Amino acid sequence: MYCYIIKDRPTQAEPLDMLKSGLPYAAVLSREEWRRHENRFDMGIEHDPDEDLILATKAEVNYDSITGTFSIPRRADLSGEDAVFAFALDEKGIVFIDDSGTVHNLIEMIASTKRWRYPSLERFLCDFLTQVVKNDQKLIDQYEHELDKMEDAIVHETGIEIIHRVNEIRGDIRELLNNYEQLLDAAEVFEENENGFFVEDNLRYFRLYINRIERLKDAASGVRDFAMQIRDLHKTHLDIKQNNIMTVLTIVTTIFMPLTLIVGWYGMNFVHMPELQYTWSYPVVFIVCILIVVVSIVYFKIRKWL
User: Which of 34, 37, 180, 231 could lock 29 by a disulfide, CB 3.0 to 4.6 Å apart?
Assistant: First the structure.
């Protein structure tokens, strides 16, 4: 169990001191610890989340508490398993139920990087939610930069693998967008303040967070659209290459069709073919074949097929 009093920063304290301090608090308990100690927090609920059943980030308003879950894609592997935990809060503080250690790490990061002039539960929640998406703008920029390189590779035909990586990026962006939608819903529940747990003046923190998530969502949507454009560009480029190949094959076939006709014609085994007896038959046929090739090439160049 990790217990924090929200002062100018989250400060660790003993459980009993935390509950008696009169200050907002944050506690991190395992599921087993929550079962044993939930009565201490006097939230009037029975909340026993099963990690295997946590599938989304959400917040639900109860009579005298707000409960919910977090399912956060790990930024190092967005396609892998999410970090999942639950929470319950009232006007006194928030309790996280987490067996993974994720929440403890996030709070410790806040404690080491933040110092508040006006500490409050609302400010803590805002910074906690912000910590979840702290490096997302950098991640989105990295994806955009990678897609820029892919676009250059397609234009310059460097032959690098494109489609597989584009699909991976689209999948990662989809995970981020789903997470942003869920975080927005949870933050809006906090902002609505239906139970009156939060100070009205401090609701602006949730509005600032919502604005930040909306900006990240717009940026991620832009990268998703860019990835689709790269995929379409790659397909178009392949189609152009295939069309060029088909054009060359068509031209070659067109040139050799009359030559094949001549070869087939004079390859017939008829006895009475007078041309076979002429002295100049071979040179004439040779010259005619050369003329056919030259005329065909000139014609194709005039028509800009070559």
Answer: 34
